[in-house]
C-alpha cells in the first residue's frame, strides 16, 4: 500500500500545470501629446496592459508641441505627434511612425457645399470670403473655426495652403479634435480643418459633419492609403534615442502588426 501511495503522489505531481515565471514587464508609462493619436494609443495601451497586467499606460493630450517637448524634457516617456519632427526638433529625439492620416476640410452635413478650391479655402480662412453664397452656397455668414496654437493641424494647414497663422481670421478656436467636431456639429454655417481618420470615425458614429474633397479627391482613409489624397501626414511616437526598457517594449508593440486592427478601426492607415 505504501508503494501504491507513492506512485499516486508521483503521478499527481507530474500532472500539475507548469506555472510560468512572473511577467518581467512592469511599470508606469506616461504618454502625452496629439489628441489625434491619443484615442488610438489608449486602445493600444489597453491591449498592452492586458498582456502585461503590471503595466499602466497614462495617456494625456495637449497637442503635438506638448508631446515633443515632454519627451525632450523627460516629462513623458513617449510623446505623440500628428506631424513629422521639424529639423530643429530632431536633435536628441527619435520618431517612430505609427500610422498615416490626412487633413481635410469639414462642414456641417446640412451645408450644401460639395467642394472648395484651394483659393476659396485660403480666402475663407483669411476673411476675404465671409458668406457661403460667395462660393455657391446659401446666404449665410461663414463661421471660421481655427485650431489652437501648438496643434499640428494649424502648422500643416498654414504650410499646405500658404497662409500665415497670423492672417487667419477665426471666429472660434478649437483645441482638442472632439471640441472642434462638437462645435461644428452645433453650427450649420461653420467650417474647420481636421484629421480625416477622426472625422471618418465620427461620421460613422452619426455625427452630422461632412468631409470635403481636395483637388477632386475624396477625403477618405483609403485615398490616404493609396497616396492620392493631397494632404496627408505621419502620426508618430517620440522618444529619446535610448528610452527606458518599458517604453521600448511599448513602442515595439505599437509598431507591430498586433495593433493594425486597432489602427484601422480608428480610420488611420497602418504602416506596412
Explain what this protein looks like in three dimensions.
- Helix 2 (38-51) links the parallel strand 1 (27-33) and strand 2 (55-61).
- The protein has ten helices and ten strands.
- Strands 1, 2, 3, 4, 5, 6, 7, 8, 9 and 10 form a ten-stranded mixed β-sheet that branches.
- Helix content is 35%, strand content 22%.
- The protein has helices at residues 2-15, 38-51, 64-73, 118-125, 152-161, 177-185, 196-204, 221-226, 245-254, 260-265, and strands spanning 27-33, 55-61, 78-81, 94-108, 143-147, 172-174, 190-195, 209-212, 232-239, 269-270.
- 39% of the residues are buried.
Annotate the secondary structure layout:
Elements: H1 2-15, E1 27-33, H2 38-51, E2 55-61, H3 64-73, E3 78-81, E4 94-108, H4 118-125, E5 143-147, H5 152-161, E6 172-174, H6 177-185, E7 190-195, H7 196-204, E8 209-212, H8 221-226, E9 232-239, H9 245-254, H10 260-265, E10 269-270
Parallel strand pairs: 1-2, 1-3, 5-6, 5-7
Antiparallel strand pairs: 3-9, 4-7, 4-8, 4-9, 4-10
Amino acid at each position: 500500500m505504501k508503494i501504491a501511495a507513492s506512485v499516486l503522489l508521483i503521478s499527481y505531481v507530474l500532472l500539475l500545470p507548469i506555472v510560468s515565471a512572473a511577467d518581467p514587464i512592469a511599470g508606469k508609462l506616461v504618454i502625452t501629446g496629439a489628441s489625434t493619436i491619443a484615442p488610438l494609443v489608449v486602445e493600444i495601451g489597453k491591449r498592452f496592459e492586458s498582456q502585461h497586467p503590471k503595466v499602466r499606460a497614462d495617456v494625456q493630450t495637449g497637442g503635438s508641441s506638448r508631446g515633443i517637448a515632454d519627451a525632450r524634457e523627460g516629462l513623458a516617456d513617449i510623446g505623440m505627434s500628428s506631424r513629422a519632427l521639424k529639423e530643429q526638433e530632431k536633435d536628441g529625439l527619435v520618431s517612430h511612425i505609427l500610422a498615416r492620416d490626412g487633413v481635410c476640410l469639414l462642414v456641417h452635413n446640412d451645408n450644401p457645399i460639395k467642394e472648395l478650391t484651394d483659393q476659396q479655402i485660403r480666402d475663407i480662412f483669411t476673411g476675404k470670403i465671409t458668406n457661403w453664397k460667395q462660393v455657391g452656397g446659401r446666404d449665410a455668414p461663414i463661421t471660421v473655426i481655427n485650431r489652437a496654437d501648438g496643434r499640428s493641424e494649424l502648422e500643416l494647414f498654414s504650410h499646405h495652403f500658404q497662409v500665415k497663422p497670423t492672417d487667419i481670421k477665426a471666429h472660434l478656436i478649437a483645441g482638442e479634435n472632439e471640441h472642434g467636431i462638437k462645435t461644428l456639429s452645433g453650427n450649420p454655417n461653420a467650417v474647420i480643418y481636421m484629421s480625416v481618420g477622426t472625422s471618418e470615425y465620427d461620421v460613422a458614429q452619426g455625427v452630422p459633419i461632412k468631409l470635403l474633397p481636395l483637388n477632386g479627391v475624396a477625403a477618405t482613409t483609403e485615398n490616404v492609403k493609396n497616396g492620392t489624397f493631397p494632404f496627408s501626414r505621419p502620426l508618430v511616437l517620440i522618444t529619446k534615442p535610448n528610452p527606458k526598457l518599458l517604453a521600448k517594449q511599448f513602442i515595439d508593440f505599437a509598431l507591430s502588426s498586433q495593433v493594425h486592427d486597432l489602427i484601422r478601426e480608428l480610420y488611420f492607415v497602418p504602416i506596412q
